[in-house]
Amino acid sequence: MRVAMIGTGYVGLVSGACFADFGHVVTCVDKDASKIEKLKAGVMPIYEPGLDSLVAKNVEEERLFFTTDPAEAIRDADAVFIAVGTPSRRGDGHADLSYVYGAAEEIAQLMDGFTVVVTKSTVPVGTGDEVEEIIRKARPDGDFAVVSNPEFLREGAAIKDFKIPDRVVVGTEDERARQVMKELYRPLFLNETPILFTARRTSELIKYAANAFLAVKITFINEMADLCEKVGANVQEVSRGIGLDGRIGSKFLNAGPGYGGSCFPKDTLALTKTANDYGSPVRIVDTVVEVNAARKKAMAGKVIEAMGGDVSGKTIGVLGLAFKQNTDDMRDAPSLDILPALQAAGAKIKAFDPEAMTEASHLLKDIEFAKNAYEAAEGADALVIVTEWDQFRALDLERIKAGLNSNIVVDLRNIYSPDDMAAKGFAYTSIGRPAV
């Protein structure tokens, strides 16, 4: 089948490359000429493991194309995916749908023959109705169907999530559109992937409900971690103890500095706004949003406390800036709250991240960037682990200790064992576990 992907951000680029790898012919469209030229040259705008080789393979085999001109891509397409950004709107927290609506207007002018218009972007309930109205108004004679097909891609594992998903959700009651979507995802039928067909509004809500529930799990275990510190319990053992219950499950029960990234912050906020608009508030999610924001800010206090209550004039080495490992995404990363707060308390910051330092340099001021983890620790009065990159899990701790001015390590991801760190002579602080 022929697919047009409007938008070459995280979702559009990964989805387009994976559909091409399924055997479809995909043209990715973006208004940013510089980005398109770089993609044609094999330069990825984001860091995602395996994406560069996947794109290169499908470009070489002439299944994946990039352009700034939407005309031919949309006119020839069986399905046109809208995969543009839906950031939080300034002032009220609602999802900004201007890019989605702009794409709909463009599609209306260019589509030819029966076209399935698919919202891949994360959008509030009822957005599909608005997209359909926009296209119908512009093209009363148009032969099309608007479908919801939310993405469930984890940054850092997106290709696997697309090709071996837990499920595919498709919101449509149009039989022709249903058949097109089944053909697009036909390779997944071989793996018996559950493909859930629902009404469009139900599909739109599934996406928000899923992200909100995961955010609730993260925030719950973070609050349990705080309680563990007060009562002398171990949050990792609590997490394992409850996670072994099949009704709960072990995923998203790792205590840390709070969630961030491109999805959870904006999607939880958008869900609460939509719920309030419909007079059906989701009070649990409201609280999660508030608690998570407060938690990220509180982490700086945890570091300051571990350093004796005063960081003025001291240097703090920081490992990890991205909101999670295997990505360069800095959107709502905990580091954006933690590091400025430490600077405001008088500390100097020397940081290292394997992929996110370029993006971080635009968002964080007066930060010294190190070449590696050991350089970040060299001459620092404490070392703080903010992001759980694999390369931080097996550091040469003797070398780290020799480089530090003190023996203080604050591990906000619980990468190391408190007993092991104590045995090596570190004053070690972690999340939800007894300090040593």
Can you describe what's shown?
Pfam families: UDPG_MGDP_dh, UDPG_MGDP_dh_C, UDPG_MGDP_dh_N. Its EC number is 1.1.1.22. Substrate binds at residues 152-155, 207, 252-256, 260, 324. By secondary structure, the chain is an alpha/beta fold. Helix 1 packs across helix 3. The chain folds into two domains: 2-198, NAD(P)-binding Rossmann-like Domain (Rossmann fold), CATH 3.40.50.720; 240-429, NAD(P)-binding Rossmann-like Domain (Rossmann fold, 3-Layer(aba) Sandwich), CATH 3.40.50. 45% of the residues lie in helices and 14% in strands. A six-stranded parallel beta sheet has the order 3-2-1-4-5-6, sandwiched between helices.
Question: What labels would you give this structure?
Answer:
14 strands; alpha/beta; six-stranded parallel β-sheet; 436 residues; elongated; Rossmann fold
